[in-house]
Amino acid sequence: MSAIVLFDGECNFCDASVQFIIKRDPKGYFRFAALQSDMGEKLKKKYLIPEMLDSVIVIDNNTVYESSDAALAICKHLSGMWKGFYLLKVTPKSFRDQLYKIIAKNRYKWFGKKDSCIIPSPDIRNRFL
Q1: Which of 27, 66, 105, 129 is a Cys-bridge partner for 39, taking CB atoms 3.0 to 4.6 Å apart?
Q2: What secondary structure does DSSP assign to 73-122, as a single string?
């Protein structure tokens, strides 16, 4: 069983986040698709994900997680101390999402933007949809 992470393929921060997840997901629980890709578009339609949603999306067991819930769903499956961040789930969602929105809103300004999505290396290519 695996979960899918939909990410902004043009965002440097999002690209770095995908690389971060891959390094801390030795069992390969997560697979990835850029929101802008054909597969990303298909998954957005299938799961009725709004087009203008400014968030990473996690699809796990046919459940869609967005914003801070998506980030925590990722942490839950990472190795090492990162798994402990899932405990932040007890923090009120409104507070977590507010913090998430600040980062999401400023990600291009703080981290930059690409003209196109990354091309994964051969050793991890099978994890990209």
Answers
A1: 129
A2: HHHTTSSGGGGGGGGGGGS-HHHHHHHHHHHHHHHHHHH-B-SS-----T
Paired tokens of 92? 């009120």
Report the pLDDT value the prediction gives residue 114, as an integer from 0 to 100. 73
Using CA atoms, how far apart are residues 117 and 119, in angstroms rounded to an integer? Answer: 7
Place of tokens 């809103």: 105
**pLDDT mean for each 10 residues of the chain (129 residues):** 91 90 95 94 95 90 96 96 93 94 88 72 81
Question: What pLDDT shows up at residue 1?
Answer: 78
Beta carbons within 8 Å of 92's beta carbon, 6+ residues apart: none
Q: Domain-by-domain residue ranges, the chain?
A: 3-114
Q: Which residues contact 7 (CB under 8 A, 6 or more apart)?
A: 14, 15, 17, 18, 32, 33, 34, 35, 56, 57
With H, G, I as helix, E, B as strand and everything else as coil, classify residue 29: coil
